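Key result, reporting period 2: structure in, sequence out.
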């Protein structure tokens, strides 16, 4: 026999209006006894009804009535505006509240507003009532609000109801369990997934090859009914595969027993439905209760985010809130973390981490990795009828081992081979050979073939010709770039640093940015990738607080730099005018220059070891003229640079490359390059036109496009203003001219365009 509270109030004609707390059951009768009888009959019928569910007990043990005074300022709202009433009104809002032993929390009902909420300390009640009342009545009309001022004072009644028989309860329990599973599926994914579902999502099997020992240990922890576990290892070592395999095996061992169930989620998904103050705590409480009912173990993939989601700090986070439940074995959790994430979580909430058993996963050695790759290829051949040639596996391992340093085996091998499989399926190929492996690697990284194949010789003459066609008047810079490429080709670059860390110094407009673009084009522009160069204007980092533009903000939103490198780890990163940044930015960059790693605001590691870092500066250039060669300008620049940067920053730079001021002949060569680039534009290529530029045009553009202060930087604008504008107008007037050569010259009448045949 259970007691259920009813709130009653006398309304018009002396009738009694009653509401069964916590339900939508309500009625109007002549007496309170009649209200109790009617609601008691309805509740008894509902409990007998198979669709009602399994929760028979009242949600609060003993309800109490409170008339809460809430001051509210009302207003009439029309399309033209809002017209507040001169004085606020005080509403006597009836609420029913009480403690729930089952949920270990308080619960409050506001029946007239059809609202309810949980709270955890008695002192929270008053403020939460005011919050919900104001939120519910926001925008309501004064007429509707005044109904709270009318009517008699409410009171509480109680009804007693007998529970159904055992058989009925069992049926209700089965129905209730299905409801619990449905609610859990809203915040998590139930595991293990069926084979048909898994195959529709990915061709990668949930197998942890070469990890038998670690899987067995995790299975033991999952089936001992009390352990919580963290699987720790660097990205790519196979943490997710190990957990998936262990869950599948643990499920097979326990499926005939009275249930362990497994659920996978993230911190964000867990509380995604929370909208108001205190709701995420309520969701956590419900999740704990539901998992207890179904014997659920919760796998949180981003466990470190539990300490960063919820309140303002770790002490107010979901992790902190769940800590007592974990201590009391009310909830069991497994998670996966990198070593750095584990240290971050230990620093934020050491007491939380201590509740977990730790399984550390090391990277596989070469023999184990090749075994995993062969096992994967055999699986693909059996299930998807695509065969890997033996030399393809060896080639993939060699390329990944040497060039992909930001991820671990076997993860990076499985990811790359899966990409090759998808490519082969699109091309309707039944086999994958070494050539396809190399082609996909080039397309993914942008590396030129000559750097990837040891059997191909690097011709210095060809290499220098590539850069001389793009960099004018900077022989010293070209020699340095060729040396960097030769070192990389020979495999002598430090694998624990960026490919190169360079500082370009010299006046404005001498080709520093053009050189960075040329280097990015050689290294990373050979595949189908986009954006081989990423530029940061360091004048936007002049204050210490702007470091968030480099690392990302406190909410975890990545910066443009972090987002780019995660998507395109093979890039040239250009820090333009580095001397304009605040000194605190240099401190952040120390580890980036030294180890090729950057840690964002959430403690996540971003790997720059496959990037080339280039900084540019004008330091010392003010004392050098811009026109004509000055042999001692590099020495002047180096002295000014050493004075500006601290030794620990300067000493982390691989090479300081000085750029000479440009002479008149060099300006003309650059002008010729800029003019020839017009031939590649769509309006010219679509008409199959050839452009032939007279020397007079080159001389004219070089003259108007050079500035003593800005060097060759205004040259592109001069080409647009003097040549492209004139050419576009001429083409619009002569729409029918195609497949011919246009001779462009400059004379007393300005730019002249003639149609020629040669």
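The corresponding designed sequence is given below.
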């Amino acid at each position: 026999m259970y007691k259920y509270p009813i709130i009653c109030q006398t309304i018009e004609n002396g009738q009694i209006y009653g509401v069964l707390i916590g339900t939508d059951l309500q009625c109007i009768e002549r007496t309170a006894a009649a209200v109790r009888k009617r609601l008691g009959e309805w509740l008894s019928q509902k409990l007998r009804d198979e669709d009602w569910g399994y929760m028979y007990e009242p949600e609060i043990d003993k309800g109490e009535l409170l008339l809460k005074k809430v001051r509210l300022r009302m207003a009439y709202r029309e399309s033209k505006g809002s017209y507040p009433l001169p004085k606020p009104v005080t509403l006597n809002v009836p609420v029913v509240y009480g403690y729930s032993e089952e949920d270990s929390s308080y619960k409050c009902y506001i029946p007239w507003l059809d609202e309810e909420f949980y709270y955890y300390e008695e002192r929270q009640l008053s403020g939460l009532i005011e919050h919900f009342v104001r939120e519910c009545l926001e925008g309501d009309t004064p007429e509707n609000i005044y109904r709270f001022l009318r009517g008699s004072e409410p009171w509480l009644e109680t009804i007693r109801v007998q529970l159904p028989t055992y058989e009925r309860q069992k049926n209700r329990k089965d129905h209730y369990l299905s409801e619990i599973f449905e609610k859990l599926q809203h915040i998590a994914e139930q595991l293990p997934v069926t084979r048909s579902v898994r195959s529709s999502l990915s061709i990668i099997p949930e197998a942890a090859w070469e990890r038998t020992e670690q899987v067995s240990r995790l299975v033991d922890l999952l089936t001992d009914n009390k352990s919580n576990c963290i699987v720790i290892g660097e990205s790519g070592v196979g943490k997710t595969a190990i957990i998936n395999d262990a869950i599948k095996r643990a499920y097979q061992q326990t499926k005939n027993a009275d249930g362990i169930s497994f659920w996978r989620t993230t911190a964000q998904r867990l509380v995604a439905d929370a909208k108001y103050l205190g709701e995420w705590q309520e969701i956590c409480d419900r999740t704990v209760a539901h998992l207890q009912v179904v014997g659920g173990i919760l796998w949180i993939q981003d466990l470190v985010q539990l300490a960063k989601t919820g309140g303002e700090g770790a002490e107010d986070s979901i992790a902190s809130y769940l800590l007592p439940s974990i201590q009391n074995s009310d909830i069991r959790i497994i998670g996966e973390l990198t070593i750095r994430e584990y240290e971050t979580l230990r620093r934020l909430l050491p007491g939380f981490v201590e509740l977990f058993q730790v399984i550390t996963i090391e990277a596989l050695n070469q023999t184990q990795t090749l075994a995993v790759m062969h096992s994967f290829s055999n699986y693909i051949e059996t299930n998807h009828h695509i065969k890997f040639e033996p030399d393809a596996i060896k080639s993939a391992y060699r390329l990944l081992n040497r060039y992909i340093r930001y991820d671990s085996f076997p993860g990076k091998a499985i990811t790359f081979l899966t990409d090759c499989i998808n490519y082969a399926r699109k091309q309707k190929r039944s086999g994958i050979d070494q050539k396809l492996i190399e082609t996909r690697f080039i397309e993914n990284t942008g590396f030129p073939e000559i750097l990837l194949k040891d059997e191909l010789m690097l011709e210095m003459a060809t290499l220098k010709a590539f850069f001389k066609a793009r960099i004018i008047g900077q022989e010293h810079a070209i020699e340095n770039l060729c040396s960097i490429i030769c070192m990389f080709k020979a495999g002598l670059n430090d694998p624990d640093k960026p490919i190169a860390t360079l500082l370009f110094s010299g006046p404005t407009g001498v080709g520093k940015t053009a050189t960075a673009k040329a280097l990015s084009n050689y290294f990373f522009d050979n595949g189908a990738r986009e954006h081989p160069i990423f530029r940061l204007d360091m004048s936007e980092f002049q204050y210490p607080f702007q470091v968030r533009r480099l690392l990302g903000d406190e909410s975890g939103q990545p910066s443009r730099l972090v987002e780019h490198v995660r998507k395109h780890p093979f890039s040239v990163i250009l820090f333009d005018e580095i001397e304009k940044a605040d000194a605190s930015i240099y401190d952040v960059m120390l580890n980036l220059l030294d180890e090729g790693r950057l840690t964002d605001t959430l403690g996540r590691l971003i790997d720059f070891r496959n990037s080339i870092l280039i900084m540019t500066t004008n330091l010392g250039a003010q004392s050098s003229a811009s026109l004509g060669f000055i042999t001692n300008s590099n020495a002047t620049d180096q002295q000014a640079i050493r004075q500006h940067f601290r030794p620990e920053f300067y000493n982390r730079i691989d090479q300081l490359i000085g750029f000479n001021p440009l002479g008149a002949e060099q300006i003309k060569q650059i002008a010729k390059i800029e003019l020839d680039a017009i031939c590649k534009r769509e309006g010219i290529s679509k008409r199959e036109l050839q452009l032939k530029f007279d020397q007079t045009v080159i001389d004219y553009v070089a003259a108007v496009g050079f500035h003593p202060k800005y060097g060759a930087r205004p040259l592109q604008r001069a080409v647009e203003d003097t040549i492209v504008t004139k050419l576009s107008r001429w083409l619009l007037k002569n729409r029918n001219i195609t497949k011919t050569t246009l001779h462009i010259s400059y004379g007393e009448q300005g730019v002249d365009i003639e149609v020629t045949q040669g």
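DSSP finds 29 helices and 28 strands in the chain. Residues 664-756 form a domain with the Helicase, Ruva Protein; domain 3 fold (CATH 1.10.8.60). This case is discussed further under Risks and Mitigation.
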